Amino acid sequence: MKKDEIKSVLLLGVGGISMYQLALAYLDLGCEVYGYDLKKSKYTELCQERGVHITHRFNKEFLNVDLCVKSGAIKDTNKYVQMLKKMKCKIIDRAQALGEFCSQFKCVIAVAGTHGKSTTATLIYEILRAANKKVSCHIGADVFAPRFSLGDDFLVVEACEFNKSFLHLKPTISVVTNIEAEHMDCYESLFNLRTAFLTFLKRGIKRFVYLDKSTSFLKRTKNIEFVSNTLKNLHPKIKGEYNLKNISLAVAVTKFLGVDERLIEKVVNNFSGLPRRYEYKGMYNKIKVYIDYAHHPTELRSFISTFFLENPDAYIVFQPHTYSRTNMFLDDFISVLKDVKNLCIYKEYSARERRADGLSAFELYERLKKFNPHVKYCASMKGVIKQIKNARAVAFVGAGDINLVAQKIVERN
Which range (21-30, 71-80, 98-107, 147-156) has the least confidence? Predict the structure, then answer.
C-alpha cells in the first residue's frame, strides 16, 4: 500500500486494539481517517486523541470514503457494509489491511498458534525494543509502549487463525506455538486446520515451531527450526509451564535476529506478563482477586493447575466463550472442571453468536453437575459475591467480559 492510493478510509468496528493500530497506520499514510463503533472504548478515545474522526452513529459522509476496513466482528450482511457496496466503495477485512501493511516493513515476525501467541509476540517485541530496534507491533492484547509506525525495520504480528486471517500476512519469520482444534466452524476438520497452519509457516523465509505433541506432524516438513524448553540463566516472573514454552520461542527468534543473550535474559526475567494472564486485580474484603483469559480447555487446564499450586483453596469463576465453543468442547470442559470443588459457571459471553449456535453456560452447568455436585451457576455479580464470600482467592476466567465483573467486585471495597 502506497501513499496517495487512498485519501480517506473508514474503519467499521474501530473499538478494539487491532483496529486502533490500523487507524494509526492510515494516519501515517496521510489519510483522512474515520472510525465507527457502537460503543465507546479506551481505543476509540485513543483514536480521537490521535486525530481520527470517531462517531457512534453512522454518518452519510462515510459513503464517500475511498476505502472501508471492517473488523472481524462485522459480517458482509451488515446494513452499513451493504450501503457502502452500493456506493462502489472498496471494502476489505482487517486481516487484508494488515497483510497489505506488511510490505512497509523490512522484517515481519508473525506468531501463530492456538495458545500463547499474544505472550510470545509481546516478548519478542519487548526484547527487540530493549535492543533499540525500530520495531512496531500488532498484537491483540494490551502491551507496554505499543507502536505501529510505517517504515520501521521490524513488525511483530500476532497471527490469528480465525477465518484464516493469518493467511493474508506476508511474514519474513513465521512462528507457531502449538496447533489444537479451534475455530472448527471455519475449518471443519483438524486436517484443514493443520493445512492452514502449514501454509502459514511456508510463507516465512525462516520458520520456528515449538515441538510438542500438537506440532509433531510437522517433523516431515523441511526448513523448520523446532524449539524445545531449554532455558538457561532465566528466572521469569510469569508463571506456568505453558509460559516457559512461549519464552523459549521468543528467545530462539531474538537470538536468530542477533540480539545479545544477556539483554534477552534481562528482558525475560523482568517481563511481568500481559493483562488478563494470571493477572492480580486487587482485594475484595480479604479475598485476592485474579483474572485470566483462558477459554479453550487446554488453556483452562493449564491455568487451573498453576493457580491451585499457589492457591489450593481458591475459587474459580468460569465464563464460557460463545455457544459454539461450549458445544464443541463440552466433553473437554467437563473433563477439566469435574474435579474443581470450588467452581462457579458464569453466564456465557455470546460474542458474535446466536443462542441457536450451540450450548449456553447454564446447559454446561447442568451437564457438569452430573460429574461435579459442588458446581454452582451464577448469572449476576450479586450471585458470584455470595458464592465467593468464604474464599481466600478467586480467579475470574474467560475471554469475554468476566474481567469487568472482577473489576467491579474489587471496586466495591
Answer: 71-80
